[in-house]
Amino acid sequence: MRILVVEDDPVLADGIRVGLGLSGATVDRVASCADARCALATTEFDAIVLDLMLPDGSGLDVLRELRSAGNRTPVLLLTALDEVADRIRGLDTGADDYLGKPFDLDELAARVRAVARRSQGRAAPGLSWAGIVLEPARLHAMKDGHAVPLSRREFAVLAALMERPGIIHSKQELEDRLYGWQEEVESNTVEVHVHNLRAKVGREVVETVRGLGYRLRTSS
Amino acid sequence: MNSLRFRLFLILVAATGFVWLCAVGWIYFGSRNKVEHVLDTRLQEAARMVSSLVTNGDIASAGRNGTLPTLEPASYERQLSCQIWSLDGHLVAKSSGAPGSSLTDSPSGFSERVVEGETWRVYAIEDRAKGVRVLVGDRLGLREQLVKDLIKGLVAPAILIAPLLGFLIWASLGRGLLPLSLIAGELQRRGADDMSPVDAGHAPREVRPLAEALNALFGKVEAARRHEREITAFAAHELRTPLAGLKIQAQVAIAAADPGIREAALRQITSAVDRTTRLIRQLLAVSRLDAGSTEEAQAIDDVGDVVREIVEATGTAEQNVTIEIDPALHQLDLRANRELLILALRNLHENAVLHMPDGGKVHWGFTRSRRGGAVLFVEDEGPGIPEDELSIVNQRFFRGRHKSASGSGLGLAIVELALRQIGARLVLANRQDRSGLRAEIVFQESMSSATFETTAERTSACAENQTSTTEPTRPGHSSFRVE
Asked: Nearest to residue A35, comparing CAs of A25, A46, A48, A24?
């Protein structure tokens, strides 16, 4: 899951980045409205964590522009002004959820997962496909009732594939899901993760579509 | 007696009563004179009339017959009495009700005499040709009665009218004081938090200054309260964000299995605690400055020393920053409150250091304004302030586009507040020679002693001092590094 954090406080932003990273998300962080616009124009995110009071304006402006441009990325607002009127205004501007500072890291992670899940049209917290069950909250994978130990990145690749089974995911797409801007991506990492994944959950699960990418095998 | 209405009522009633009393007195004396004059004239005329009617024969025969002819009784309660005496002292005739003894001894003209216990005013006329003396008199008591009746006629309705008058005065006062009671009622009804202005437009002229003063006060209180609310809201925001950072970093430290991540989180917590500490210190400084206690000005004879102390105390920044202090600062003396000056200088210094790139140089110097006042300035090599933000950057909690990680948005506001209390002002400008901010403290001419050297003198002085300084960075400038 790739998440954009728009927060100007360096300590808090760093905490969110590392904290959400612990729960398996790939987090990119910007500190101003202008940078947020830039990031949103170039990259697709599964969710946005947006602070309201930013040095060059209000996060609400960014949200409004985002929504009027037709972008449906789920947005979770963060703010220290927890008046009811502020919350209502935030939600009415197009936010999906709201969290007042200070907040709990686990709650933030859970809410981010929830808004991302909803935006994918799923209500159930877990992903399941052909005997494989993923619990994103615990980074826990099961196949046919047995736990399968997956690394964070392997889990992310499998989750990306299982969110939309049957759809081909390009190597670039998967890389974007796995790595933030600051992280170096080696040329064959996705292949390595898919290779390891196949070894753990079975060769037949992930199918390589030559020249296009990967997908879950549909005809079993 | 505290009621304005009651007070006015008493004053008006007393004034009206006094005027009435004066009028009654005036009428009493005036009428009495008039009445006396009229009655005296009547006595005269009556005497002449009687005297003209008397004939020698009549009187003589009457005298001889021994019967006294009685005149017709006077129409108004026998007010007038008449006696006709012969010149040799015999009573020739008298009106009915007139006393038997002579009414007067004086041969002619007016006189007063007590006869049979009553005071009479008598007019005598002597007719030598006819040999008679005619006396016409009336009782003074009757005269008094007349005047008394007159006054009674005047006063009686007045006394009857008095309660009506009182009521009218009372009612008119109520009506006249209505605008006052309207305002009073409005003030009484409003809640303690209601700071809306009183309607001064309809207030009478006398009360308008009061209403306007009240409105101005309401405005001030309201502004102060709004200001306080804003500060509280901002303070809450500014405190909650670092608290959220602290909490989340602590949770990361707890949750992370990787010791590297845990250590990084703990490091972040340390810096967040530092920042929050500074923020709280600044908040306290702002509230102290807001309280506006007037601090005593004292003589500061070496501003350079003050700056050096601040620089040494702030030497905890992590950047590799060089600080330069113009030695001429040591010759600058000021009259200002030392604590406030230190507060302003420290915040300016922290601000400059915070925005410095690695290896930059902060320069403290001084010059003179065109009007001769001392100008203390600090220059940094940071990004400066975008021109459009220069005017708002000293607002509370404003954190510009080029903000630092640990800025609170309070520093420049504190500087501004402290300098205003000292009597100096802050001028911010971007440096012309390179990127960076130049913050000037412009002191009033009276605050510094007039023994400044000119720039040229200072430059030469610096050149002479060159050999004595050890730092090669800039001639004549003491500088040291902050690690």
From this structure: A48
In this complex, is the C-beta atom of B266 within 8 Å of any C-beta atom belonging to chain A?
no
* CB-CB neighbours of B435 under 10 Å: 13
Cβ of B275 and A81 within 8 Å?
no
CA pair distance B71, B96, nearest whole angstrom:
6
> Which residues in chain B touch residue A102, judged by CB atoms under 8 angstroms apart?
240, 243-244, 246-248
Give me the tens of pLDDT residue by residue for chain B, a chain 483 residues long. Answer: 578 888 999 999 899 889 988 988 898 888 888 888 988 898 889 888 888 887 654 554 444 444 455 555 444 455 678 888 888 878 888 877 777 777 777 778 888 888 777 788 888 888 888 888 888 888 888 888 888 888 888 888 888 888 898 899 999 998 888 888 888 888 888 887 787 887 777 777 888 888 888 889 888 888 888 877 777 777 777 788 888 999 999 999 998 888 998 999 999 898 888 888 888 888 888 777 777 666 677 787 788 888 888 888 776 555 677 888 888 888 888 888 888 888 888 888 888 887 777 778 888 888 887 777 888 888 888 887 777 777 766 666 555 544 544 555 677 888 888 888 888 888 888 888 888 888 888 888 777 664 444 444 444 444 444 333 333 334 444 444 444
Do B296 and B337 touch, CB atoms closer than 8 A?
A: yes
Closest CA to B425 of B447, B454, B409, B458: B447
Question: Do the beta carbons of residue B270 and residue A38 sit within 8 Å?
Answer: no
Which of B405-429 are b and which e, b meaning 16 or more Cβ less than 10 Å from the residue's Cβ?
A: ebbbbbbbbbbbbbbebbebebebe
Q: Which residue has the tokens 């005296």?
A: B40
The C-alpha atoms of residue A45 and residue A29 are separated, in whole angstroms, by: 12
Q: B306 with B461: CB under 8 angstroms?
A: no
Residue A19: which of B233, B252, B401 has the nearest Cβ? B252
Q: Which residues of A182-196 are buried (b: 16+ CB within 10 A; e: fewer)?
A: eeeeeeebbeebbee
Structure token pair of residue A152? 């964070």
Asked whether the beta carbons of residue A8 and residue B242 sit closer than 8 angstroms, the reply is: no
